[in-house]
Specification:
alpha+beta; 3 helices
């Protein structure tokens, strides 16, 4: 593996991915989200099935890093916000710690800003990942959070982080996501 590999970044609408790209992204996600003991990270949560944008990182024609964005309108307290759900942040285990995910997160942020329709980027993560996302501009918020699961409004206890896009301040109040998390 080269010391400073050249990462080629591609941004594609999710419905324009080729079958091969979609398959490679799925394989990458499975590799990236395996627990240290080899178990799948299945937490019983129903995650969204479709996204709007895929940010892909390639080295020598091999997909090594991936991020998705999905557009959502959510309620926070009395406000309605349009957010870019940032999810599926994944880098192949052999290519980690080279800054690839950070570069894709920056490309995702640039896309959010250029689209001009988002108030915030928003992601969910495990506690040990909070410092990483904080270094990439995200801020931990502590609002009570509810999602829809199997037709029921249920509390969601993942860490929620936001990235200001429109200049608005993150409001106080309960966060209601009218669907599955991303």
């Amino acid at each position: 593996m080269p010391e400073d590999p050249l990462l080629e970044i591609a941004i594609r609408s999710s419905n324009s991915l080729t079958e091969e790209e979609a398959r490679e992204a799925e394989i990458l996600d499975k590799l990236a989200y395996v627990e240290e003991d080899g178990d799948d990270c299945d937490d019983g949560i129903q995650w969204i099935e479709e996204s709007n944008w895929d940010i892909l990182g390639w080295v020598d024609g091999k997909l090594v890093s991936h991020v998705i964005l999905s557009k959502h309108v959510i309620r926070v307290g009395s406000q309605s916000l349009t957010i870019a759900g940032v999810g599926g942040v994944a880098t192949h285990p052999a290519w980690r710690r080279l800054g690839f995910a950070g570069r894709l997160l920056k490309a995702a942020e640039d896309l959010m800003r250029s689209e001009g329709c988002y108030d915030f980027g928003m992601l969910f993560c495990d506690t040990e990942m909070i410092p990483y996302y904080s270094r990439n501009g995200y801020t931990l918020v502590h609002n009570p959070l509810f999602i829809m699961q199997r037709g029921q409004r249920v509390p969601f206890d993942d860490n929620e982080l936001v990235l200001p896009i429109s200049g608005k301040l993150w409001p106080e109040g309960v966060v209601d996501i009218p669907g599955s998390p991303w």
